[in-house]
Specification:
Blueprint: H1 3-28, H2 32-71, H3 79-100, H4 110-126, H5 133-139, E1 149-150, H6 153-166, E2 174-178, E3 182-188, E4 211-217, E5 219-223, E6 226-228, H7 229-233, H8 239-261, E7 276-277, E8 289-293, H9 307-315, H10 318-321, E9 325-328, H11 330-336, E10 349-350, E11 360-361, E12 364-368, E13 379-385, H12 387-390, E14 391-404, E15 411-424, E16 430-435
Length: 437
């Protein structure tokens, strides 16, 4: 491990051991000073976990970028293969845009793509009025009648990769890139019937599983970073990298909120917005998620508070359980860190004390998502699910950018647009802890 990672992991381990010792005493007697110590240790663990996660994200970014480029068709062992794949993907983006606008287009060759990239750099720095004739012609293929230009596929891939690192729900969900405006698929609602039969016995017809169709629309979202004209004039500054970082941070924040709580109107539908019921799989209408009550309003139950967590895990079907993750807020994690298993007296929550190892609860990874509902009466502040099966994220191929140096003198703003969707597609692979009775 890198030295800074070793220091963070060691500090996290020490803080957790001190937290357990203090909490063991606090469980036997109420002490204001002890409670304050626990609060500070809890904050320390949160801070160290965040630092650990940031270093891990930076360490794996190159690897994740390569994987995502491969999924987008931009991978390849050699530079020549990668260039060919990038050209193919960008032409696919151009084709999708042309089809949407009901117009013809001519595919670019390698020289055309290089000219387009050079023209985009000129556009970002100085605007379209600075194009020379060759750049103006090259940029015309990626121009959008509604304004702006398509962003080259390699930059698009880097932005998506950074969003992946920053957006907690995207990182654990199924992700599909599409060239159409929506993803459609079939949902298998139940299982086919069967019966035992002897070799020569008559065979009656069995039940047929119900299949439903889902459609996830790719909705438009945008980032609107700004910078000074002086910065753009500085040839040393990598304008593309600056724009990638700013756009990715804004997209990740917007996605995090929408994938959790989006209403599905001109944005993804968040998984907390679906109806829920305290009924088991097979007894609920499709489209309804299961919740298990804590028995206390806005809190865990007073006696054996950890029981509800064990019930949730046991309620998940075996076929989904191995890939499950807990998703909740920091405030809920602070409560869980104090919980013990009744028979073994072991703490349910464990910190990740190795690089790449997340904190766990009952042996399952824990993801912090501050967009989850705050603790309140009847709140769905904690989820447990196999998000790779339950929640589908859809990315529409292609980003476009519009340059604005008019609305704020001295500054240049960039409208960066992309299209993304999200919805629950398997309602048995996701369950909630409901903080109510």
């Amino acid at each position: 491990m890198p030295p800074e990672m070793t220091e963070i992991v060691d500090g996290l381990g020490r803080a957790f051991e001190e937290f357990k010792k203090s909490n063991d005493v606090a469980l036997k007697k109420h002490d204001v000073v002890l409670e304050e110590k626990l609060r500070k240790l809890d904050e320390t663990m949160d801070r160290l976990e965040d630092q650990k996660a940031q270093i891990e994200a930076e360490a794996k970014r190159a690897d994740e970028l390569e994987k995502r480029l491969n999924r987008m068709g931009l991978g390849g062992a050699g530079g020549e293969d990668k260039a060919a794949a990038e050209l193919k993907t960008f032409n696919a983006m151009l084709g999708a845009q042309a089809a949407e606008q009901k117009r013809a287009f001519a595919a670019l060759d390698h020289d055309g793509l290089r000219a387009y990239k050079a023209g985009l750099d000129t556009f970002l720095r100085k605007g379209r009025d600075a194009f020379f004739d060759g750049e103006r012609k090259a940029m015309s293929v990626g121009a959008d009648p509604d304004g702006g230009y398509l962003v080259p596929a390699d930059m698009t891939g880097r932005i998506i990769t950074r969003v992946f690192d920053l957006s907690p729900i995207r990182a654990i969900s199924a992700v599909q890139a599409i060239s159409a405006d929506a993803l459609e698929g079939l949902a298998d609602y139940d299982e086919a019937g069967f019966a035992w039969v002897g070799e020569t016995e008559a065979r009656a017809e069995t039940t047929t599983p119900n299949l439903g169709k889902y459609r996830i629309q790719a909705e438009e979202m945008y980032a609107y970073p700004r910078t000074t004209r002086k910065l753009l004039d500085d040839a040393v500054v990598d304008v593309g990298a600056w724009l990638e970082g700013k756009a990715a941070e804004r997209f990740a924040r917007a996605e995090g909120q929408s994938f959790v709580a989006g209403n599905g109107i001109a944005r993804p539908r968040g998984f907390t917005t679906y109806p829920t019921a305290a009924t088991a799989d097979g007894s609920r209408a499709w489209g309804t998620l299961e919740h298990i009550n804590t028995t206390a309003s806005g809190a865990f139950g007073a006696s054996n508070p950890a029981d509800v967590l064990i019930v949730v895990v046991e309620a998940m079907k075996d076929g989904y359980r191995d890939g499950c993750t807990w998703v909740t807020r920091r405030s809920v994690i602070s409560l869980i860190r104090k919980m013990k298993e009744a028979t073994t007296n072991a703490y349910l929550w464990q910190p990740g004390l190795a690089q790449g190892q997340p904190p766990t609860l009952l042996g399952f990874p824990v993801v912090k998502a501050e967009d989850m509902p705050a603790l309140a009466a009847g709140s769905l502040s904690m989820a447990f699910g196999n998000f790779g099966v339950a929640y589908q994220v859809v990315d529409r191929l292609g980003l476009r950018v519009i340059r604005d140096e008019i609305t704020q003198p001295g500054f240049v703003k960039f409208h960066v647009f992309r299209r993304v969707g999200g919805a629950v597609v398997q309602f048995e692979a996701l369950k909630f802890v409901r903080f109510g009775s």
